[in-house]
Amino acid sequence: MAPNDPTPAADNDRPAATQKKEPRLAEARAWWNEAWDDGGVFHEMWEDVRRAPEAGWHGMANWIKALAAVAVFSFVVLLFDGAVDVLLDAAHRILTAVPNVQVGDNTSTGVWATIDNPVRSYIAAHSAGLPISASTVYTLWQATGLFSLIAGFMTRSNGVRLTWTAWGIAGIAMVWTTTPETSRTVATAIAVLAWTIASAFALRGLNLRPRVFATVGAPQVTVQPQIHIPAQPDSPAPDNVRQLNR
To answer: What is the pTM of this model?
Structure first.
């Protein structure tokens, strides 16, 4: 039921929430308009965006550079995360597709069997308890040697050469450990010879002599003009000297 008093309600009679809401809206509207005026925050940011294509990377505003860098970094992280999953899955499929290596399962023949069979037997005998199979370890072993051989020949990287050296020493040690004592010396010598021959390609360009860099240029000549007056011997003053104006 409507009140009987026809007098309209005064401003003081309105709820307090309504009175506070109107000043806040007015302040927000004033701030918004001021931000888009000349010299305002949004106006300056819009001008930075508008001038960015003409200014280029070096001339654009720093906040645009930071925003672009964060966006590119996030995109690269997403691509890298997806690529790592794909590569790991492919590597797992390749490594698990090789036949199992067991002690005595030596299928190599010829001179290569002298080196390969002891390595296969050593890996198979010492891979028990690992989370990966012996065949996976053997495949990784072969891949490491092949990669370090090719990459050392092409890039001449010291890190790759160090990998090749460690791979060869470990292989020679496995041949020495696994080969029977009666033929151990000959098998190890063959392994050392084969690794040395392959090192001619993997360690191509390696020079153990220290490099001396000599800079040859025009000699630096410093000219300092000086006048040297020889010391005069002590002698009596000449008697024919006459002072002027006297």
So the answer is: 0.47
